[in-house]
Amino acid sequence: xxxxxxxxxxxxxxxxxxxxxxxxxxxxxxxxxxxxxxxxxxxxxxxxxxxxxxxxxxxxxxxxxxxxxxxxxxxxxxxxxxxxxxxxxxxxxxxxxxxxxxxxxxxxxxxxxxxxxxxxxxxxxxxxxxxxxxxxxxxxxxxxxxxxxxxxxxxxxxxxxxxxxxxxxxxxxxxxxxxxxxxxxxxxxxxxxxxxxxxxxxxxxxxxxxxxxxxxxxxxxxxxxxxxxxxxxxxxxxxxxxxxxxxxxxx
Amino acid sequence: xxxxxxxxxxxxxxxxxxxxxxxxxxxxxxxxxxxxxxxxxxxxxxxxxxxxxxxxxxxxxxxxxxxxxxxxxxxxxxxxxxxxxxxxxxxxxxxxxxxxxxxxxxxxxxxxxxxxxxx
Amino acid sequence: xxxxxxxxxxxxxxxxxxxxxxxxxxxxxxxxxxxxxxxxxxxxxxxxxxxxxxxxxxxxxxxxxxxxxxxxxxxxxxxxxxxxxxxxxxxxxxxxxxxxxxxxxxxxxxxxxxx
Lengths: 251, 119, 115
What we know:
The structure holds 3 protein chains of 3 kinds.
Chain A: E1 3-12, E2 15-24, H1 29-39, E3 58-61, E4 64-67, E5 82-86, E6 93-95, E7 98-99, H2 102-111, E8 116-120, E9 133-134, E10 149-151, H3 159-163, H4 176-187, H5 194-201, H6 215-219, H7 226-239
Parallel strand pairs in A: 1-5
Antiparallel strand pairs in A: 1-2, 3-4, 3-5, 6-7, 8-9, 8-10
Chain B: H1 15-41, H2 48-57, H3 61-88, H4 96-118
Chain C: H1 5-34, H2 42-50, H3 52-78, H4 84-113
């Protein structure tokens, strides 16, 4: 089994600390982080599923928002790389790589996106991000059927929030995760009021504060494509002028 | 100002971020230029002799260089503005990066052409 | 801001931007081709501005560019997430700046044309 030597340079609240580690060549950054933690039990970070499903291990790796569990060490070159780890931006810092997700979760609860989407699976388009067409289901969710139901893409990892240049300066900004969730609810209302959802995002610090940096979609590990959701909602709202918002529905 | 501003981060692999940054920088530059230009136009009030003398001082190579930067600023901001308009209407979203690089290259080429024409 | 305020502001900025591209083109063509010396002396500037269409063009250009510029400044400052009273004060200030800019331009041109 080939092993590699990596140095994790970890941001410890107000300083950097290096950990030299030896790991299998096919290991991931999260494995390295756990190895570091076994050397230093004061290291704070979050992890759970280790397969990009829970969204817990989001951090910045060499300045880029990533899930540590699916970032392979092999990505950093063969000769003793130094990998810089920092916490996500735009979240309150608890310590080291651990940030407080409670405010983010409270925010998302306002939109309350259901966990499963009701879709007809269409053939994947050539674009890397698979676009599935939702079927607007009014009322109750249909009987769960393996062919047609699956989980929503968003794993609430917060990478998009960290990457967005506006979230950092505008504390009132709704942010890409919330706006994308609103876009999904508006596309599949299931008996909820679309105008009510729109009211939460169609304002100066909601949809219209986005300036199209597209960083959110660039870092999203789950194919949510928040930028697309934001621009699509804006486009629909623009085409609805001068329809009064009370009568406007997304479809 | 609250919060750390992430507005100006240079990332060559992010056309979207470069577009956002350049649009903001050129926008700020153009606002500054606008008011500078309006202020300089006040020279016209001093009468023909003063104005003509002033125009002569504007013929230095430094001003030509500044004009080129201005031209790039106008072109970059305008072309990226058209890009943002298209994206804002939900068009060509998948090609947002390609649209940025096309705008950038076109702005550079037209600036070079303009510089040669002005020389 | 009213219900459709943000939407309208964005759309307005787009419309002003497109107008600017057109006006800049016309402004540039007029300056470089209608004036023999390229407006490099006072006499040319005065003669240029005395043509009513040109005057109208330049004033329109000033209004459109000032509006677009100040809306752009507003967009940047709004990214700082200012509290509502401060935002309102900022909006009022920008209106005033815009008004003064346009008035300055009009009276400057007036002076040249009527000297």
